Amino acid sequence: MLNPRQIEAFRAVIVTGGVTAASRALHITQPAVTRLIHDLQYALGLRLFERRGTRLVPTNEALSLYREVERQFVGLERIESAAKNLREGRSGRLRIAALPTFNVGFLQRIVGIFLKEKPEIELSIYGSISSQVVEWVASGFCDIGFAQGPLDFPNIDVEWLPLVQSVAVIPAGHRLAAKAVLGPRDFVDEPFVSLEQSTQTRYRIDAIFASAGVTRLTRVETPLSMIACSLVAAGAGLSIVDPFTAAEYDGRGIVVRPFTPALKYDIGVVWATGRLRSALALELADKVRTAIAELARAADAGVAGLPPSGLPVS
User: Fold this and answer.
1) 223: which residues sit within 8 A by CB, 6+ positions away?
2) Residue 311: its pLDDT value, please?
3) C-alpha 150: how far from its chain's center?
4) For domain 4-71, is the CATH number 1.10.10.10?
5) Record keywords: Transcription regulation included (predicted)?
6) pLDDT confidence band for 123 (50 / 70 / 90)
7) Is residue 307 pLDDT above 70, yes or no?
8) Span 187-214, average pLDDT
């Protein structure tokens, strides 16, 4: 019966050109290589090498056999290489689920960089409301998810990302564009584009305005921040939305300003409980975490009086 070690020794002698070099490549003694070759010839019933002086020269049969052996070794090397790439996150497949605010452009820019760094990976991106994102991840349909809190669902683990602040969006040219930071009283007598009551952000916005004793003139409701921004750009009113969507529409008919008091927007990385997290998913989560931290720092600078436009706090 053939022994894999015999095949290794045979290949090593062919590739390196001799028993001495083969022994070094295999980290065994020269007599051990000679014994493996002898046993292989006996098992195959073939003469594989001829001795010419101090050298072993492969026979025609050996060269024919080597071509078949090399095909098998190339296949094994490809498997080893593929496994190494998967282990180190250089290849593989990743299925991502994210809430709509991430899917307007923020996540796509991160993914674009990710793909340039790892041209051999395959990605799928799905977008829906946070509860659906959780379902996709918990069921195994997606490897990683990004959803808005609260996230009190079974069969998932959540890693919270850095908190960011919701922002005010106003039509370009509006009188409030002259202010660097807006508060509830700036919205008095102004038409308001509101998120629907089904959203967590809507409840928090309502609480802030109620606490300030300000009643908004709500003209339009929508479940999506991207629709709210488009309506603001069309002159339908002012709004308060997440910073990810606002950043995509900034300069496209709207002006973005920090809003106080701070209205935190919490997003978590969603994992399926008990499922192994791939290297690709973990690296993507790190990139998203870094990008959000940078966004949070920029927002904090704006509230402190250093908005991107350079306008002073009034």
Assistant:
1) 195, 196, 198, 199
2) 36
3) 22
4) yes
5) yes
6) confident
7) no
8) 89
Domain ranges of the chain: 4-71, 92-162+267-301, 164-264
- pTM of the predicted model as reported, rounded to 2 decimal places: 0.66
Is the predicted pLDDT of residue 305 greater than 70, yes or no? no
Structure tokens at 53: 């002086």
Distance (Å, whole) CA 201 – CA 242? 8
